[in-house]
Specification:
83 residues; mainly alpha
C-alpha cells in the first residue's frame, strides 16, 4: 500500500483520538502489509510512530512486529517500556 495512504490514515486517527488504539493499529498493519512487502518508507513511518509515543500499549505490540529489524525492535521496546 502507498506510504502516503498509511500516513494520511494515521494522521486522521490521531486528529480524532490523539492516540492510536489497538483497532487502529490493526487497520494500519493491514494497509502496510497489503502488498506483501514493508518498504523502507513504511519502516521509517513505523519507527517514527513507535518513537512518538502515540500508541496504546496494545497498539504498540501490534505494530512493533511489522517489518522491523531486531535491533530496532529491541531499541523501541527498551525506549517505550523504560519510560
Amino acid at each position: 500500500m502507498s506510504t502516503t495512504t498509511v500516513e494520511r490514515t494515521s494522521k486522521r486517527m490521531l486528529h480524532i483520538k490523539k492516540r492510536i488504539t489497538k483497532q487502529d493499529a490493526w487497520v494500519l498493519r493491514k494497509l502496510i502489509l497489503a502488498d506483501g512487502y514493508v518498504s523502507k518508507r513504511e519502516r521509517t513511518f513505523l519507527r517514527r510512530v513507535l518513537e512518538q509515543g502515540v500508541l496504546d500499549d496494545e497498539a504498540f505490540e501490534v505494530l512493533l512486529e511489522v517489518g522491523l529489524p531486531n535491533n530496532i525492535h529491541e531499541s523501541a521496546t527498551t525506549k517505550t517500556r523504560g519510560s
